[in-house]
Amino acid sequence: MEIRDAVAEDAPAACQVLRWSITQLCPADHRNDPKILARWLCNKTPEIVASWIAQAGNSLLVAVEDGSILAVGLVTDEGKITLNYLSPDARFRGISRALLGALEVRAIERGNARCTLTSSETAHRFYLSAGYSEDGPPVRQFGTLSYPMSKRLAVQNLRFSRRRTCPRTGRSG
Ligand SMILES: CC(C)(COP(=O)(O)OP(=O)(O)OC[C@H]1O[C@@H](n2cnc3c(N)ncnc32)[C@H](O)[C@@H]1OP(=O)(O)O)[C@@H](O)C(=O)NCCC(=O)NCCS
Predict the structure, then answer these.
(1) What pLDDT is recorded for position 155?
(2) Domain for residue 135, yes or no?
(3) 93-122 in b/e burial notation, b at 16+ Cβ within 10 A?
(4) Nearest residue (CA) to ligand 1, atom 36
(5) Backbone torsions φ then ψ of 138, nearest 5 degrees
(6) Cβ of 25 below 6 Å from ligand 1
(7) DSSP string of 85-100?
(8) CATH code where residue 39 lies
(9) Is 169 within the bounds of a domain?
(10) Strands (E) located in the chain
């Protein structure tokens, strides 16, 4: 399994993973309510995913095995994790933990000491076990309850990524 930056050609398969993950893994959030699902899925199109890949200030990473995308994550240059979705057939293999680690490394490379995210009900325990803590009361999103969370990053453990980071701009070279 390899974790790498997504390229434009990944958009259709990455989009499919997002849609499968939301539909099949998140009934605790959407309760199979078609209105909630429609709101959640409406921006998960290949074109919009391609625009997220191309957008400056975004790192959209994919976990790939045997040529198939198994998980999709996005972290902004401000350390905000806005996507972290797994293909339903790849659960409980440590893939999301590895992808989350790669997103955190990228956040550090961009000069952040902290990652923030808004967790689904489905992923809440996963983030707690990955060191995230509550960062305010739950908020409504797409008609579901989401949990603002954050984690202080272990910057001192990442000497390699720091070496590759331009100290002036905070961007990797
Ligand atoms: C939640 C999710 C990211 C977990 O992915 P995963 O690849 O199955 O998780 P991992 O195998 O990396 O698990 C890492 C750890 O979290 C635990 N874990 C994973 N999902 C869990 C859950 N729902 N509840 C409790 N623990 C969980 C695992 O047991 C494992 O613990 P361990 O390392 O101590 O053995 C994945 O199920 C998913 O994408 N869900 C749907 C989409 C979603 O809600 N994404 C988050 C949007 S904010």
Answers:
(1) 76
(2) yes
(3) eebbeebbebbbbbbbbbbbebbbbbbbbb
(4) 86
(5) -55, 150
(6) yes
(7) EE-GGGTTSSHHHHHH
(8) 3.40.630.30
(9) no
(10) 2-5, 58-65, 68-76, 80-86, 114-119, 133-134, 139-141, 144-152
What would the pLDDT profile of 13-49 be if each residue is shown by its tens digit? 999 999 999 999 999 999 999 999 999 999 999 999 9
User: Ligand 1 pocket test: which of 96, 99, 116 has the largest number of ligand atoms within 8 Å of its C-beta?
Assistant: 96
Closest residue to atom 48 of ligand 1, CA basis: 119
**Confidence (pTM):** 0.89
Total of domains in the chain? 1
Judge whether 60 and 52 are in contact, CB under 8 Å.
Answer: yes
Residue 64 alpha carbon to ligand 1 centre in Å: 17
Instruction: Give 12's Cβ-side CA count (13 Å radius).
Output: 1
DSSP 113: S
Token pair, residue 9, equals 């050609």
